[in-house]
């Protein structure tokens, strides 16, 4: 049974974050927070700074100013290693899967890279490592069932339709048992039916695993359907923040969207 949805305390809190690449200001004085169990969307026209924002959260980019607090600990910067250790996982706009490997092995790889202890023993399949391998595999099988991709377990990922590849990418991130899941355009390039499926899986992950989710999404309809709160960026600045119906009625947001070629 799905858990009762209840949004909790602030788990991620960005304060006055600014990031520039040489003369290009990707983010200017951005503050926003994410609450436990929330689905938080980041939207905005092309080049608004959405991907940069995710890369600040998972430690790939170091902001010149500002701070990031995750689960009560405040940092001037997050390193990718620390982000992973603290349970922040992400999917990518361009899939980061091993195309020649099976669905099962891709998701397993996501788990092994994260829980990397005793890899040599695991490779040799001896003693406790053999039991550990069984336990890890059970968890991965659970994800495969959950995402309804059992029929494709052994299929090389590169042979699957794009929508299913995106689902495997979600599975790879879930294998890390994240506390915070960052999704970079999880519906990009999908048809309507695939978008509906992905929306449902994101809602189910949020419900059944209790995972807090931050996602970048271009499709306003999807955002309105699944997000609890939305941050709107434009030219690296925050121009809106609130419930979907609030940001949709925000004059600055309407102007940014009407002015942008979409
Ligand atoms: N590594 C980088 N080096 C230089 N400039 C960068 C880099 N990454 C992003 N930028 C610049 O920062 C700005 C914000 O880019 P970003 O990719 O974060 O926007 P976005 O909202 O994710 O765009 P899109 O919707 O097109 O993916 C852009 O002007 C971009 O050219």
UniProtKB/TrEMBL annotation:
Transmembrane portions of the chain: none
* UniProt keywords, alphabetically: ATP-binding, Cell membrane, Membrane, Nucleotide-binding, Transport
Where does the UniProt annotation place the signal sequence? none
Q: Which stretches make up the ABC transporter domain?
A: 12-260
Say if the entry is tagged with keyword Iron.
Answer: no
A cellular component term from Gene Ontology for this protein is: plasma membrane
One example of the protein's molecular function in GO is: ATP hydrolysis activity
Q: Which InterPro entries match?
A: AAA+_ATPase, ABC_AA/LPS_Transport, ABC_transporter-like_ATP-bd, BCA_ABC_TP_C, P-loop_NTPase
CDD domains (UniProt xref): ABC_Mj1267_LivG_branched (cd03219)
| PANTHER family, per the entry | ABC TRANSPORTER ATP-BINDING PROTEIN, CONSERVED COMPONENT OF ABC TRANSPORTER FOR NATURAL AMINO ACIDS-RELATED
Name listed for the protein in its UniProt record = ABC transporter ATP-binding protein
């Amino acid at each position: 049974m799905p858990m009762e949805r209840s949004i909790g305390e602030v788990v991620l809190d960005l304060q006055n974050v600014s990031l520039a690449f040489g003369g290009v200001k990707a983010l200017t004085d951005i503050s926003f927070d994410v609450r436990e169990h929330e689905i938080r969307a980041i939207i905005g026209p092309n080049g608004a700074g959405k991907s940069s924002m995710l890369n600040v959260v998972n430690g790939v980019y170091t902001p010149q100013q500002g701070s990031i607090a995750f689960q009560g600990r405040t940092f001037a910067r997050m390193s990718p290693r620390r982000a992973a250790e603290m349970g922040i996982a992400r999917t990518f706009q361009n899939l980061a899967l091993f195309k020649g490997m099976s669905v099962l092995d891709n998701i397993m790889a996501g788990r092994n890279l994260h829980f990397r202890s005793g890899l040599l023993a695991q490779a040799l399949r001896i003693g406790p490592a053999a039991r550990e391998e069984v336990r890890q595999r059970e968890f991965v099988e659970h994800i495969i069932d959950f995402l309804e991709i059992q029929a494709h377990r052994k299929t090389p990922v590169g042979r699957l339709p794009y929508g299913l590849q995106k689902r495997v990418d979600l599975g790879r991130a879930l294998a890390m048992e994240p506390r915070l899941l960052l999704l970079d355009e999880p519906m990009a390039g999908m048809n309507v039916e695939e978008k509906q499926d992905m929306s449902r899986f994101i809602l189910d992950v949020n419900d059944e695993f209790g995972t807090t989710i931050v996602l970048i999404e271009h499709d306003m309809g999807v955002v309105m359907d699944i997000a609890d709160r939305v941050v709107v960026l434009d030219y690296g600045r925050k121009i809106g923040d609130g419930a979907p119906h609030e940001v949709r009625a925000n004059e600055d947001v309407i102007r940014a969207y009407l002015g942008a070629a979409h």
